[in-house]
Amino acid sequence: MNIEDLLRETLSDMAREEQPPPPGRFLQVDARRSRRRGLALAAAAAVTVMAVGSTLVVGGLSSRVAAPQDPVGQGSVETPPKPSPDLLTLKEGLRLADVFKELSNVTGRPVTEFEQAARDGGDLGLPAYAKGRLEGFAFPSTYEIRPTSSPDEILTAMVARFDRAAEDVGLVDGARRAGRTPLEILTIASIVQAESGTKRDMPKIARVIYNRLDLKPARKLEMDSTIMYGLNKYGVSASNKDLRSRSPYNTYLRPGLPPGPIGNPGADAIKAALKPADGPWLWFVTTDPKKGVTKFTGSESEFLKLKEEWERNRVTG
Length: 317
Fold this sequence. Notes:
Elements: H1 3-15, H2 40-45, E1 47-52, E2 55-60, E3 86-89, H3 96-107, H4 111-119, E4 142-145, H5 151-169, H6 171-178, H7 182-195, H8 202-214, H9 224-230, H10 240-243, H11 267-274, E5 283-288, E6 293-297, H12 300-316
Parallel strand pairs: 2-4
Antiparallel strand pairs: 1-2, 3-4, 5-6
Helix pairs in contact: 7-8, 7-11, 8-11
């Protein structure tokens, strides 16, 4: 039986159910987005994504097919017990490379299978403004992954979860009001996520980014997080050698935003990118990383004092 016949049979079975599932049970794909689904239809037909609180269940339709019949008419063939699913919580801000590693650990599949599925981004239901790149669209959440789920199914579910979050926060309309593209908002959100020590700092960090971009002429963002992403390094402070990198993500050398998201931001960071706080700030320094204290200023002399405070805390800490 091909996937179309299987889907048709499954939908027919659902139509005969006495009690239809409650409206919020399934994450439906809006008909208006169908034009950009393309080859994602096949993947979407093979995956069910159910909202269970904050947990998403990812499983193939094969788990819903009735037990096969004995060809000689002696009843149903006994179906082997299904392996139990695994829970995976992806935290906000993870880079896509780290998402793949966690998925590999849970499923036992090699990282290369997820990388290949991501390269075929058109099959995952990505919005057109993603430009075929999955970074930024593998939404952080808790997923219940069944052992039979393929990389395409799992990543499709994550994009579907992103779609729901984007609709909840009004990403497309909010980006238009901000004079930015949705991808630019998501890029800002990924930087906010990477640079923020706490949720309360996110709107202020977003404001620093906007203030720098809106200056005439625009001021370079000078964010260490973008440099580290471009160099595939981790840490909170770039070295002098890092600052000379020719990477397109080096916002110390290149004006404006980097080419795309530097991680997968959560809803709070996206909201902050859409609605930054009001303020004149052009700099921020996490003066006490241990306590999560970040201070903001619009004065360069004050900024230099904050850097000295950070240096003192780093030495004594």
